[in-house]
Amino acid sequence: MSLVLFDLDGTLVDSGPGIRASVRHAAASVGIAEPTDEQLRALIGPPFPEAFLDVLGVDPATADAMMADYRDTYGAGGMFDASVYAGVPELLAELTDRGDVLAVATSKPGEYAREIVAYLGLAEHVAGGVHGTTFDGRVQGKAAVVGLALAANAPVLAHGPALSHGPGLSHGPGLALVGDRHHDVEGARVHGLPCVGVDWGFGGRDELEAAGAAVVVDKPGEVPAALDALRSAAPR
């Protein structure tokens, strides 16, 4: 039995339409120029409001004002303007059927993430729970969310087989994170975990490889074999 953590946006679901529309609305609410397509792509994945500072170059007060408007728009229905990537339901079913425990670890607020996962019919596959950031700032950033997911699934970790975590990383129980952005790779690394990068999301192969992903796959059907390869390469 292994625990496999999945990012949400850009990994399990294409959440681009709802996020882009909500960001555009937030930008208009504070009177800044509409973000470019490149900026909008860069904004999908990293945590808000920090991403507004980094990608749009706004000041902290403007970022906070954008965050308030974004939450109003996104929470009112924008979050449901998303779709499951082709092949993902089959991937989750295959991993579940073979005994892996799956969980979601996302930089998105957990309240939103749980609603989205349920709305899109994925909840039955994630017995390890849906873990995200908190509105009160108590849990922020990918590394913190991964830590939350690990703590919630401690019994699974106590019995999982080893995976190869790559050069310089520890070799713990059967565990990996699957994600599409460098934030996923970096957040996993904080906990000594390998990251299986996915090329169908918003980051791309170059970003994932530069960040140090253990392997990058092109389609959902390749994830099980990538996890098996990590497990086979682990020291016995």
TrEMBL record:
<protein>
    <submittedName>
        <fullName>HAD hydrolase-like protein</fullName>
    </submittedName>
</protein>
<dbReference type="InterPro" id="IPR023214">
    <property type="entry name" value="HAD_sf"/>
</dbReference>
<dbReference type="InterPro" id="IPR041492">
    <property type="entry name" value="HAD_2"/>
</dbReference>
<dbReference type="InterPro" id="IPR050155">
    <property type="entry name" value="HAD-like_hydrolase_sf"/>
</dbReference>
<dbReference type="Pfam" id="PF13419">
    <property type="entry name" value="HAD_2"/>
</dbReference>
<dbReference type="InterPro" id="IPR023198">
    <property type="entry name" value="PGP-like_dom2"/>
</dbReference>
<dbReference type="InterPro" id="IPR036412">
    <property type="entry name" value="HAD-like_sf"/>
</dbReference>
<dbReference type="Pfam" id="PF13242">
    <property type="entry name" value="Hydrolase_like"/>
</dbReference>
